[in-house]
Amino acid sequence: MSPQQRRPRRLRANAAIRDLVAETHLATSDLIAPLFVKQDADGPIPIVSLPGIFQHSIDSFCKEAERLSALGIRGFMIFGVPNEKDPFGSQGYAPDGITQQAIAALKASLGESAVVMADLCLDEFTDHGHCGVLNSRGRVDNDATVELYCEMAIAQANAGVDFVAPSGMMDGQVGAIRDALDGQGFIDVGILAYSAKYASAFYGPFRDAVGVQIVGGGDRKGYQQDFRNAREALLEVDLDVAEGADMVMVKPASSYLDIIAAVKPRLTIPLAAYQVSGEYAMVKAADAAGYVDGRAIAIEQLTAIKRAGADLILSYFSHELAGTI
Ligand code: PBG
User: Fold this and answer.
1) Whole-number Å distance between alpha carbons of 52 and 94
2) Which of 168, 151, 138, 136 is nearest to 251 (CA)?
3) DSSP strands (E only) in 52-111
4) Is 221 in the active site?
5) Distance between CA atoms of 169 and 226, rounded to whole angstroms?
6) Largest CA distance in the chain
């Protein structure tokens, strides 16, 4: 047969044949919904830069999670927004801290039908806004921070979390958290490691959502990855797998499809990707301006993230796409 006789368009002729040969299928059950819970909120407070996303009260958070669960969402990622912050982020590991309250409430309402995950990081809880505690030179102290992450993991486990999700990019955090959990008998609590997390401008709206600012205008480049690099993502993933992660994550997603694709073949555990706040906000803003069809773009981007190799996707679009894809 000559190459001219090959006609790839036969497989695109109509929707039926396209569906039959489609390689990638996006489903509601692929999505994990991020949810913000604010201490002492009376009801849902809109987040201006994230249209359709709210800082919830415990009550409205449970209602939203129940609505999503009925539509087929299985995973929920909780971000607590405390009233009080201090240099050590102590509300992050207080037994009655807001994240712990939210975990317990969600477990009580949805039980085994929900996979309850919680962000495990100190930036929402520290008054200086860094992801850990600072040493005398004002730099994040890796090992002292990891000790507090272990306390946080225990507090979240006591509240009933299914998976803790360490996102602070401290060296050795996954292994230390695994040991701490096992040491307290929490052998069934899993770890979704934010393994390859880049220092990214795409996190901008998230910092509104959780009310976090780095005092003095600093950044997180001293611990989050440099976006000029790909190979260090492989090192981070390999270490987290060796330290006992049950799932690993690449973050952000759309500008990091090469990283997702490079990580995937190294893994025998699930790979998650996080389509972060800035990725969502840009689509919503362009949609509101009438420049693009936001829903179509969301589906195209999420499908691309899955095609690149993600098994699970954290996305703010979960809230509007659940049950419709
Ligand atoms: C850290 C954390 C951040 C995000 C998730 N976990 C912020 C950061 O690292 O600065 C960002 C998520 C998003 O932008 O949607 N607690």
Assistant:
1) 30
2) 168
3) 54-56, 75-81
4) no
5) 12
6) 73
Domains in the chain: ranges and CATH: 26-321 (3.20.20.70)
Q: What tokens appear for 239 in the block?
A: 């270490």
Is residue 251 part of the annotated active site? The answer reads yes
- Site to probe by mutation for ligand 1, drawn from 78, 192, 203, 316 as the one with most ligand atoms within 8 Å of Cβ, is 203
Compute the distance between CA of residue 273 and CA of residue 194 in angstroms, rounded to an integer. 9
pLDDT at 214: 86
Q: Give the residues surrounding ligand 1 with Cβ less than 6 Å away.
A: 119, 121, 123-124, 167, 203, 206, 220, 276-277
List the catalytic residue out of 85, 197, 284, 306: 197
> Each residue of 256-314: pLDDT tens digit?
999 999 999 999 999 999 999 999 999 999 999 999 999 999 999 999 999 999 999 99
Report the separation in Å between the CA atom of 7 and the middle of ligand 1, taken as the mean of its atom positions.
46
| CA-closest candidate to residue 174, choices 152, 159, 191 | 191
Average pLDDT over residues 132-136: 93
- Residue of the nearest CA to atom 12 in ligand 1? 276
CA 65 to chain centre: 16
Angle in degrees, CA 278, 238, 197, rounded to 5: 15
Residues recorded for the chain: 325
The partner residues of 76 in beta bridges, in order of sequence, read 33, 116
**From the CA of 246, how far away is ligand 1's center (Å)?**
20
Between the alpha carbon of residue 305 and those of residues 25, 26, 65, 85, 117, the distances in Å are 11, 10, 24, 35, 21
Q: How many CB atoms lie within 10 A of CB 15?
A: 8
CA of 25 to the centre of ligand 1 (A): 27
CB atoms within 10 A of CB 111: 10
| Residue 98 C-beta-side C-alpha neighbours within 13 Å | 28
Q: What residues are paired with 56 via a beta bridge? A: 37
CB-based burial, 79-105: b 16+ in 10 Å, e otherwise = bbbbeebeebbbbbbbeebbbbbbbbb
